[in-house]
Amino acid sequence: MVCGELRSMAELRYAVVLEPCPPEEGGGYAVTVPALPEIVTQGDTLEHSLLMARDAIELSLAVRRGEGLDIPPSDADGARLETVSVSSPAA
């Protein structure tokens, strides 16, 4: 922040999707952010993955601001992740 410059900061909350990576691929979690499709990152642990997600979101928002692009509104309020089972024909 430049001396004397005051910026209001709004807290934005984004849903993130963490998918376990197979052990043969190094384990950890792959992370995506549905509201910011350009983000794909990963971490070794759940905590590390969330830290990487935060860093990626902050960087994405900074790039979007710098390029004059829209900033998606918060989407995590009330966001849910559910799984759905379906039958698949046998191979």
Task: Please give a handful of descriptors for the protein shown.
single chain, 91 residues, alpha+beta, three-stranded antiparallel beta sheet, 1 helix, 3 strands, 13% strand, globular
Structure, described:
By secondary structure, this protein is an alpha+beta fold. The protein contains one helix and three strands. The protein has one helix at residues 46-66, and strands spanning 17-20, 29-32, 40-43.
- Rg measurement, Å: 17 Å
Beta-strand share of residues: 5-15%
- N-to-C CA distance: 60 Å
- Give the fraction of residues assigned to helices: 10-25%
- Characterize the overall form: globular
Classify the secondary structure makeup into a structural class.
alpha+beta
Number of strands: 3
Mean pLDDT: 88
- The helix-strand sequence is EEEH
Q: Count every helix, treating DSSP H or I runs of 4 or more residues as helices.
A: 1
Strand count, sense and closure of the main sheet?
A: 3 strands, antiparallel
Low-confidence stretches: none
Order of strands side by side in the largest beta sheet?
Answer: 1-2-3
